[in-house]
Design brief:
This protein has 164 residues and is α+β, with helices and mostly antiparallel strands. Helices cover 47% and strands 20% of the residues.
Length: 164
Amino acid sequence: MSRRLVQLQAIFCIALVLLILRLAHLQLVRGASYRRLAELNRLRLIPEPAPRGLNTDRLGRLLASNQTVFRVALVPQDLEDVTVVVSRVSALVHRPTESLQRAYRAQRSLPFLPATIVAAVPKDVALQLEEERWRSPGLLVRPETVSLYPRGSSAAHVLGYLSQ
């Protein structure tokens, strides 16, 4: 019985030494690289476009203003089944499923960045899509402000142009 106990203690000590060596390797040797990976994974920078202000001429006439539009986007990381979500969106926005899937493939970049599939939907459709979100993980309806030029291109040389 005493021999078995000594063997069991030896096996336990060897396992403990191997565990300590592995922990030392992970923390002391590879610790800096794992810390860097954790820092990169911790922060998620998602750009948010800022609305431009109202531009008027010297007489107070409006040259550029802001208008709120609702964009429909999909977050690739949160999607369970792309085809199901796209088909639900397609039924509500009255656009072909293929065009929405094409837009998703074209806009998709990083797993956590939203890929816009519909640039602008009316407010009532945006509200219907918001009601669908619980059934469609990964679906995102974002209000964004876009510039509106009531006088057209008459002051384009002064006001400039903001692209997507």
